[in-house]
């Protein structure tokens, strides 16, 4: 563990100073694309116009014989496509893979100046972040970068979940975390074949009716991810990082995707992944606060400008703590409204977007 005095010192001579605060631009969806897929690259200008973050994926879902093409394609994207205010991220291959070193070396030296965040999969503990941290510092120094690259950990193993707080605190480069339900299910030996969402077998059941023991009993599907996502949200928030839900694999089941995203949003996640264009719109809808809630939150803040005391507003008790919840909602709404005139109108703000 580094001394607290050294925490913000660059890890290589000539590397940029670590950031004190993690930037929080609109981050409702991390849209995955494979830069070796011509159709996805052809759609990129349209995707960039719609998505808050686009991520060139190099890891799982990219076939072994296209790993280098995906990396080279991402370099080309970074050098040639105008990203406007959309962030460009990458997910590199895992640390033990034969591609990780070349992924990081190539991307930092070729497009380190336009890349915002490096997502690292299968992070198991702070030792993984320490390795990436030092290597990035060396590569940044060699490339003459002036802005540090940020690191996003993918939480998708039992060991990663067990060390989530230490991972979040491992480096000032830590930008956030995403939740990877597919690898996590495999790592835990869960008996599922899905990518996120619930399962019809994961239920709770009401007691039998004593007067009618054979009557059907009420069952309700439970959320198998609640515990781990809540831990991730706490670990991120206490360290000033941004938590994201990850993938939802049943692309056609837009209703279940929306439910999974909304559960994550309500627990504190700022966004989710989108694997298909249809999921960009779902994430945008879910991770932009509901206009009715924003209008109510504005009403509370207007009625209690100093956030103190106890008040009744629309029949509900409001105090310092509810005022803070309203502030979270209104701050997010203001941030999104600045980028999106339709949201600005729905929230009753003047839009500053052109
Ligand atoms: C899931 C897909 C393979 C589906 O692709 P496809 O069968 O081509 O779908 P459609 O025919 O509906 O596509 C319509 C058009 O849209 C384009 N498209 C599809 N996906 C994307 C995309 N992500 N970005 C841009 N454009 C996209 C198609 O090319 C079609 O175009 P056109 O023919 O011109 O109309 C595919 O969506 C896909 O590969 N998605 C990404 C998958 C991915 O990245 N997976 C890895 C992340 S999940 C994970 O790793 C698990 C996690 O780590 C964990 O452990 O939990
Ligand atoms: Mg995974």
Automatic annotation (TrEMBL):
Amino acids binding substrate: 91, 156
Keyword Lyase carried by entry: yes
Organism domain of life: Bacteria
This protein's UniProt keywords: Lyase, Magnesium, Metal-binding
Cofactor names: Mg(2+)
UniProt xrefs under InterPro entries: Aldolase/citrate-lyase_domain, Citrate_lyase_beta/mcl1/mcl2, Pyrv/PenolPyrv_kinase-like_dom, Pyrv_kinase-like_dom_sf
MF-aspect GO terms: lyase activity; magnesium ion binding
Domain HpcH/HpaI aldolase/citrate lyase: start-end pairs: 28-194
Protein name: CoA ester lyase
GO biological process: oxaloacetate metabolic process
Binding site for Mg(2+): 156, 183
One Pfam family, short name: HpcH_HpaI
Keyword DNA-binding tagged: no
